Amino acid sequence: MSLIERQINDIARDRALRYIGEDLIDIYDKVVSRTRLNFEDGVRLYKAPNLSAVGFMANIVRERMHGDRTYYVRNQHINYTNICNKFCKFCSFYAKKGGPAPYEMDMAEVKRKLLEHIDVPITEVHMVGGIDPRLPYQYYLDLLHTIKQVRPGVHIKAFTAVELVEIQRQAGKPLEEVLRELMAAGLDSLPGGGIEILSDRVHQELFDRKLDGNEWMDVARVAAKVGLTQYATMLYGHIETIEERVEHLVKMRELQDETGHFVTMTPLSFHPEGTELEHIAHPTGYDDLRNIAVARLMLDNFEHIKSFWIMNTAQVTQLALWYGADDVDGTVHEYEITYKDGDHGNKKQLLTRKQMIKMIQEAGRTPIERDSLYREIAEEPVPVDAPRTFIPLDVVQ
Does 389 map to a domain? Predict the structure, then answer.
């Protein structure tokens, strides 16, 4: 390193020291030198009172990797059934007394859902559902075939690890063989979800009928073996501890070191409405930003960090683009997993492409339309040119 380069680095560090403070400057030094953060660093980032300092460091990583580029996708969600035998305490989606009425889509209903938005050039269908032991193996193959029939070029991101284990049970075949058959029918990638947080304690208390952490990671390893891209999530804000959050991130990082098949991490805020945990406080934007920033700093081998605007709100997602996030998910069109204020009839949740672009531009970032594998889609003229007036001064380097 030349003398001038050292002097520039010293000036930058002095500035960071004034802003970040002595208690986090050693973590700043690791971030700048691209040194992997350890478990103790993650705990300190969660407990540090200066959230802006954590966001400042996360933004260094975000801009080092992506500049001001911010990704979005035009997508549609389909939840083929809400019948489920897992009875997770954190879930408001599954059919139960006093809650959502049970449903199970046949192929005609799936086609109708797809045709509702056939005029929109959607590139991704995100499909998950409950665990209904009455559905045969052929049903899942038919789902994939039906989507490809209506939208031949669409990317299908479908089936959590929990669903895949049920599909394997119905098929009576090894998981690797089942995955290859699903891929032949149209499956292109796997969503996150199914484990929520990699903690045996939380698993036993909240979702003991589902896969445990080791079983979930085994499914991920088979997915990597057959060449399926997978997305990752972390559900926070329920009964987990800060240490369990960091443990989840470290385990995901180690699994990514092993497989390399994860493309994005999405920290998901828990919404207690309509669940058995309604007594838990509603998530805050402060906690949303903290989890996004810590995820960006800890997951050095994940290319992308997503702020899911439906759970975080569009406004918090705009802020999150300065706290480590480089992806805002997509237009969505219909989402049923989390209901706003417990309103099970309010399922239409969408932003148009124009609104998505405006949201990103207002945050001072450059919108990039992507496909499900983060390949850039050729830009189309959009009648919007929002002024880039929203730049949080406390996170600009």
Answer: no
On whether both 144 and 105 belong to a single domain, the answer is yes
Cα–Cα distance between 319 and 393 in angstroms, integer?
Answer: 11
The strand order across the sheet containing 75-79 reads: 75-79, 124-128, 155-158, 187-190, 229-236, 262-269, 304-305
Domain range for 165 is 67-369
> For residues 88 and 259, what is the distance between their CA atoms, to the nearest angstrom?
29
Same domain, 229 and 106: yes
82 and 13 housed in the same domain = no
Nearest to 128 by CA among 142, 145, 112, 140: 140
Closest CA to 31 of 61, 64, 66: 61
Q: Give the model's pLDDT for residue 346.
A: 42
158 and 48 fall within a common domain: no
CATH number at residue 122: 3.20.20.70
Q: Note the pLDDT tens digit of each residue in 248-260.
A: 999 999 999 999 9
pLDDT value for 1: 64
- Judge if 58 and 71 occupy the same domain: no
Cα–Cα dist 68/326, whole Å? 8
Tell me 306's DSSP state.
B
Q: What angle is formed at CA 367 by the lines to CA 121 and CA 335, rounded to 5 degrees?
A: 50
Identity (one letter) of the amino acid at 74? R
Residue pair 322/57 in contact by the 8 Å Cβ criterion:
no
Do residues 9 and 253 touch, judged by C-beta distance below 8 A? no
List of the chain residues with pLDDT < 50: 335-348, 383-397
Whether pTM > 0.85 for this model: the answer is: yes
**Is 395 within a domain?**
no
Quote the pLDDT of residue 264.
97
The reported pLDDT for the residue numbered 205 is 92
